Amino acid sequence: MRFGLSRMTRRLHPPSPGGGGSHAKSERSAGAGGRGGVKLTRRRHPTPVAFASLSRPTLPFQGRVGACVTSCTHARHAILAVALGVVLLAPAHAADPRNPDWPCVQVKVPEMSPAAVWAGAPFDDVGTKWQDDAKLKDLVARLAARRTPLEDAQKLAAEFVTGSADKKESGRVLFAGLFDTLNTLRSDVINGIERYTRRQRDFAERIRSETLALRELQDKPDADAKQVAEQADRVQWETRIFEDRRRTISFVCEVPVLIEQRLFALGRAIQQEME
């Protein structure tokens, strides 16, 4: 099972202020009889996730290079300052220096401990027995899926144990399947977060190189204004994407915790029926 970080990001990352959804803009206009009225128009903005997927973005200085040669000089210097600040501070402040690719404030725990989520009889001898029963295997997949509300999953788990001839054995086997499935999913999430961090580090280095190149280009007395504008646009756009991605990761960092909480809640529901 491979963790799709982009899909998880879309589910967990809410729109940034002014970034997603739509808002109403009021315009005053003359109505019938000389009375003023209010006309509402809606303006849509792309979400931060969409920024990275646009192949040909419309950049702030695009199409008005000539007008921007002198008036945008200070703006481009501001872009340089922001971009350099982003790439110098961002590549990463790992919470734990022993795990430089782990950007989350939560302590990295590669695998869950059974004792942390289960207080029932040991299930290490169950192995993959739960996979031999097609009905039980399907139930495990349904209970582990996030699309199944937790309350519904707890109810289904309890009904399975209650309807079994041997409640204790059925409960052990069911939880063994849930532990294997959710522990694997959680490990995939952690690996995905670290891959994401490494890509961000490479992206930051690219922005840094392009920013320094832009600075050198601006310092040339015979610099081509159009070339400077295009390079400044590119640096600004990539910096914006970088910042959006960096904000996204804080939401993704919650996923391993949510998986642990789900497994603990399901384990408790199973144990109650086993007793």
Write up what this structure looks like.
Strands 1-2 form a two-stranded antiparallel ribbon. It has helices at 5-12, 48-51, 65-71, 73-89, 114-117, 134-144, 150-162, 167-219, 225-252, 255-274, and strands at residues 22-30, 36-44. The chain is mostly helical and 275 residues long. It starts with a helix and ends with a helix. The radius of gyration is 27 Å and the shape is elongated. The longest helix is centred in the last third of the chain and has 53 residues, at 167-219. Helix 3 packs across helix 9 and helix 7 (150-162) runs antiparallel to helix 8. The chain has one domain (62-274). It contains ten helices and two strands. Mean pLDDT is 75; it is low at 8-78 and 86-92.
Structural class: mainly alpha
Describe the main β-sheet briefly: 2 strands, antiparallel
Shape: elongated
SSE pattern, N- to C-terminal: HEEHHHHHHHHH
Strand percentage: 5-15%
What is the gyration radius calculated from CA atoms? 27 Å
Our count of domains comes out at: 1
The helix content is 55-70%
Arrangement of strands in the largest sheet: 1-2
Structure, briefly:
The chain has 275 residues and is mainly α.
Itemize the secondary structure elements and their pairings.
Blueprint: H1 5-12, E1 22-30, E2 36-44, H2 48-51, H3 65-71, H4 73-89, H5 114-117, H6 134-144, H7 150-162, H8 167-219, H9 225-252, H10 255-274
Antiparallel strand pairs: 1-2
Helix pairs in contact: 1-9, 3-9, 4-8, 4-9, 6-7, 6-8, 7-8, 7-10, 8-9, 8-10
